[in-house]
Write a structure and sequence with these properties.
Structural class: alpha/beta
CATH topology: TIM Barrel
Number of strands: 8
Order of helices and strands: EHEHEHEHHEHHEHHEHEH
Helix content: 40-55%
Bound molecules: 1,3-dihydroxyacetonephosphate
CATH architecture: Alpha-Beta Barrel
Shape: globular
CATH class: Alpha Beta
Radius of gyration: 17 Å
Oligomer: single chain
Strand content: 5-15%
């Protein structure tokens, strides 16, 4: 199965507009020559428009970190799918930080994914078990439940190029921001044994084999190759290391040579 690698940077709640204006031109310069990898950056809402202008013609795509599922209305503080789609192509949905700090559930994640797909956004759908769940041997049941519930009632079709407009990011919570990445082998096994079979049961083998699955959790330039050389891992969702130009460029380089 030929899946184009993709590396996405999740800036989380980092970078003011002024700071983004420093980082993005460095990324554009450093990533210009790297072919064969799709590159996405996901800044906070406030800097999306400035970053979009700086990315023009660079081939780097833009993503948001969240949306609300309603089309419009009296929802103070929220941003609609249409509003996000005016500016971005991608949107991160169901990140563990949103599940943990903002009460997102499988059900709300599912509503957000449906709403994103309806307006043509490509969701980067995050799943992953916590440290406790991992310790208790619950990785299989938790990740399977997250995938099945998050994608329940969704129909997916391949476009003319065989691409499916959905990415899954396997981000074990214990590996996020801890400097303790999962091993490439462990992450690959989770994708092969849990995520792809769950996708196949929802969408059939062909679509499941076309969906790109990223790994996230303490990815940096020095360990990225360990993930990209795995058969089931098609790229990375990068947090901390996406805030430093040389690190992010190094990760994209590692994805290009595999
Ligand atoms: P870190 O790369 O900082 O561990 O964060 C991963 C992540 O949460 C990306 O969404």
């Amino acid at each position: 199965m030929n899946r184009t690698p993709l590396v996405a940077g999740n800036w989380k709640m980092y970078k003011t507009i002024a700071e983004a204006r420093q980082l993005v031109p460095e990324l554009v310069r450093g990533l210009k020559e790297i072919q064969g990898v799709q590159k996405v950056i996901c800044p906070p809402f406030t800097s999306l428009m400035s970053v979009k202008a700086l990315l023009e013609g660079s081939g780097i795509h833009l993503g948001a970190q969240n949306l609300f599922w309603e089309k419009e209305g009296a929802y103070t503080g929220e941003v609609s799918p249409t509003m996000v789609a005016e500016v971005c192509e991608y949107v991160i949905i169901g990140h563990s930080e949103r599940r943990i700090y903002f009460g997102e559930t499988d059900e709300t994640v599912n509503r957000k994914i449906k709403a994103a797909l309806e307006v043509g956004l490509i969701p980067i759908f995050c799943v992953g078990e916590t440290f406790d769940e991992n310790e208790k041997g619950l990785t299989v049941s938790v990740v399977r439940r997250q995938v099945e519930a998050g994608l329940q009632g969704i129909e997916l079709r391949q476009n003319g190029h065989g691409d499916v407009p959905l990415l899954v990011a396997y981000e074990p919570v214990w590996a996020i921001g801890t400097g303790k990445a999962a091993s490439g082998e462990f992450a690959n096994e989770v994708v092969r044994e849990i995520i792809r079979p769950a996708l196949a049961s929802l969408f059939g083998e062909k679509i499941a084999g076309s969906i790109r699955v990223l790994y996230g959790g303490s990815v940096k330039a020095s360990n990225a190759a360990e993930f990209f050389e795995q058969t089931e891992i098609d790229g990375a969702l990068v947090g901390g290391a996406s805030l430093k130009a040389d690190e992010f460029i190094g990760i994209v380089c590692a994805a290009a040579v595999i």
